[in-house]
Amino acid sequence: MKRTLLRGALALACTLMTPLALAQWAPTKPVRIVVPFPAGGIVDLMSRSFTDRLSAALGQPVVIEVRPGAHSSLGNEVVARADPDGHTLLMGTLSMATLPPFMKVPWHPTKDFAGVAMVGQVPNLVVTPATLEPKTLREFIAYAKARPGQLNFANGGNGTSPTLGVELLRKNTGMQLTSVGYKGFPPVIPDMIAGRIEFSMVPFAVAAPHVKSGKLRALAIASNTRSRLLPDVPTMAEAGYADSPVISWYAIFAPAGTPKPVIQRLNTELAKALADPEVQGRIESLGGAILPTGTPAEVDTMLAAETDRWAKFIKEAGLKLE
User: Fold this and answer.
1) 30 and 82 in a common domain
2) 256 and 114, same structural domain?
3) Are strands 88-93 and 124-129 parallel, antiparallel or unpaired?
4) Can you give the pTM of this predicted structure?
């Protein structure tokens, strides 16, 4: 009730403001960006890439609050229940759209969040231990199909793009792999290097250093183009599986009911921050690319489309929560 009243009061206040006053909205305390995945992962790193620029523009500290748990549902819930005043934001990912079909969550992707701006996308690498026999993705699929259920793949979280990418590839090829659950993808690497996990899709920034060191082998990149950081790794299409890539996107969301002038100011400042060459370099170092920030309405439309798309796929594929 208190939160509903606050939303109503904020909306009424904004209708009474002059255009000049609306344009001058600014935070009155630190702004927190909630990251619903573990520290050190790609979502955390992506979030930290622009906070210094955004903080300078807003005149308040912008801090990252890592709140993993319940397959990212916990962090999403923190933001869904936060006061809609612009001081609490979410670094949203594909899991906002894909988690609800797997489990009951105390938030709704399109009803409890308001889009602010797109940030970027980071591809996943299809990786195996360097010691494993197959050298290409096609060779691995043949290798796995000859050993149904005998090989393990790392599930770093239901609803995450890497795990969905494996599921889509399994559906399209008929591979039978055994899912092994992990809390995020950084813990996957030691087990894969040791040979306990034979296959995974892993966020670029997490896997690339180990590919470069020769401890992991990258069979493909889930992207429309090759990465300049790993130019010898073919795209999924080049590897023969154009219908299987799942690309991670990252976007900023606010609690539903956040006044439009607040969201617009955040959208404007995020666009400026992401246009900074140094910020772009940080994101490129993660293997990612800046996306046009778009309008808040376009972010809402994107999330709605992703929610519909993946709900259908998860149901048709019969996927279950690990």
Assistant:
1) yes
2) yes
3) unpaired
4) 0.81
